[in-house]
From TrEMBL:
Residues 36-132 form the Large ribosomal subunit protein mL46 N-terminal domain. GO terms for molecular function: structural constituent of ribosome. Residues 146-263 form the Nudix hydrolase domain. This is Large ribosomal subunit protein mL46. Coiled coil: none annotated. It is found in: Mitochondrion. It comes from Anopheles epiroticus. One of its GO terms (cellular component) is mitochondrial inner membrane. Keywords: Mitochondrion, Ribonucleoprotein, Ribosomal protein, Transit peptide.
Length: 269
């Protein structure tokens, strides 16, 4: 027992100075506090106007379902009316009913012919618009099958970049209020959106160049993104001074910087 105690004491005496030195070194070198600017960014979406064009396999599947529904369906009121009128015509030929019968003034076949004639005159609106043909990336009347996202040109340091609309948080504001104010200041009152909630859906941070850090007193910016949807597609950005684009997801990947796009793509639908 005496040998065991002595060995334990010797082990503790060797370990304690090392731990104390490590603790003192950690206390002597505290990490400096880094100040970050807080920004609120806004994802503004124009949702699809028309349904997507079906793929070939989807077309075949739809045709199969339509055929199954037709085979299992009951006769409609129009079909039953046609059968009834057919029987009445046979009675008419046999002279068993009057020619002035109210039932034969406008037959189901007359209605069907009128419907077919009206349908033949109907022409659906084109899916490819003039904005698509001219590649007008400022127009909301393009890429009707896809979701478009608003980008605005903003100056970061000495260079300008296309980003989601964003603004610096002011004292006393919530991040949601900052997002609403920044979007209004950037895009004007004409653009009307609905925010999905008070919580951000994404995050991105970047550091300022060393020359800028001393001027602004911050090491970089932390951006909290909020999602919103365009309420009225007939109303575009109302600020003539700002440069903007409405891009689909494939176009966003080409336009945005890679690190920025990776953060944004995580909350794109």
């Amino acid at each position: 027992m005496r040998i065991l105690v002595n060995r334990t004491v010797l082990y503790m005496s060797r370990m304690l100075p090392a731990r104390t030195a490590t603790t003192q070194a950690s206390a002597a070198a505290p990490q400096p506090d880094q100040k970050w600017d807080l920004y609120a960014g806004v994802l503004v979406e124009r949702l699809p106007i028309v349904t997507k064009t079906l793929e070939p396999i989807e077309v075949k599947f739809k045709e199969m379902l339509d055929q199954i529904e037709l085979e299992k369906s009951l006769k409609s009121n129009h079909e039953l009316r046609k059968e009834t009128e057919k029987q009445q015509l046979e009675l008419l030929k046999a002279g068993k009913i009057d020619l002035d019968s109210e039932a034969l003034k406008q037959t189901a076949q007359d209605l069907e012919d009128a419907y077919n004639e009206e349908f033949a005159r109907f022409k659906p609106a084109p899916r490819v618009t003039e904005a698509d043909k001219q590649n007008d990336i400022r127009s909301l009347d393009r890429k009707l099958e896809e979701t478009l996202v608003l980008l605005v040109e903003q100056k970061l340091g000495s260079k300008s970049h296309y980003l989601l609309p964003q603004g610096l948080n002011k004292k006393g504001e919530s991040m949601r209020q900052t997002a609403e104010r920044s979007l209004k200041e950037c895009c004007g009152d004409k653009l009307q959106v609905t925010f999905y909630g008070n919580a951000p859906v994404g995050f991105y941070k970047y550091k300022y160049p060393p020359s800028v850090r001393s001027e602004v007193g911050a090491v970089g910016a932390k951006v909290f993104f909020f999602r919103s949807v365009l309420k009225d597609v007939s109303k575009n950005v109302g600020n003539d001074k700002v440069k903007y684009q409405w891009l689909c997801q494939d176009e966003l990947q080409k336009q945005l910087q890679q690190s920025y796009y990776q953060s944004v793509s995580q909350f794109l639908l």
